[in-house]
Amino acid sequence: MAELRVGHALEPTTDIGPVASKEQLAVDLGYIELGLSEGAVLAHGGRLLQGPHAGYYLEPALFAETRSRMRLNQEEIFGPVASLIRVRDYEEGLAVANDVPFGLSSGIITTSLKYAADFRRKSLAGMVMVNVPTAGVDYHVPFGGRRQSSYGPREQGRYAAEFYSTLKTAYIAA
Predict the structure, then answer these.
(1) For residue 28, how many other CB atoms are within 10 A of its CB?
(2) CA 76 – CA 102 distance, rounded (Å)
(3) pLDDT exceeds cutoff 70 at 130
(4) Half-sphere exposure of residue 5, counting CA atoms within 13 Å on the CB side?
(5) What DSSP designation does 118 have?
(6) Is 127 helix (H, G, I), strand (E, B) or coil?
(7) Which residues lie closer than 8 Å to 157 by C-beta, 6 or more apart?
C-alpha cells in the first residue's frame, strides 16, 4: 500500500484518485476513527494528503486485527479504507465473506479448483472473482450486487437484449 500513488485521477501514474467530495471525505475519516475506537490496528495510511490539484486526497488506510462483526467490516465505506480479518481456514473465510448485509463483489485467491468452484457457488455477492481483482469489471456482462448492495436491473450484455426482446416462434414449410 505504501507504493500506491494518490493523485489526480486522470494522471497515468495515479493508482488512487481523490475522494469524491468533502462530505465523503468526512465519512471516510469517520470510519478511520471508528476502526480505531473498535480496537482495530491502523497498519498503514489514513492521513490527509495535499494533492497537486484541487481535491480531497486521502492516503489509503489499512486496518489489521479486525473482527467480522466490527462496523468497519459490516458497512460499505466507499473510500480508500480496507481491513484484514484473520481466519483459520477456507470454511471460516467463506463464512466471514458472507457475514455482511452487502454483496457487490467478492474474491478469492487460490490454487485450488475445489475452493474456487465452491466459492463461486456459495459466495453471496453479485460478482465473484477468482484470482483477479474485485474492481474493474467487464462492461459487457451484468453488473450489480446482491442484498443491500443491489440497485436496479443488471442490463449489460446479452441479458439486456433478452430483457428488451419479445420472442416469436415461426414454422415455415417449403
Answers:
(1) 20
(2) 8
(3) yes
(4) 10
(5) H
(6) strand
(7) 140, 141, 142
89 in helix, strand or coil?
coil
Q: pTM, whole model, 2 decimals? A: 0.75
Q: Are 78 and 24 in contact (CB under 8 A)?
A: yes
User: At residue 119, what is the residue type?
Assistant: F
Domains defined along the chain, listed by start: 1-86 (3.40.309.10), 102-174 (no CATH)
The answer to whether 58 and 6 have CB atoms below 8 angstroms apart is yes
pLDDT at 139: 53
φ, ψ dihedrals at 58, nearest 5° = -130, 125
Which grid coordinates are listed for 9?
485521477
Residues β-bridged to residue 48: 58
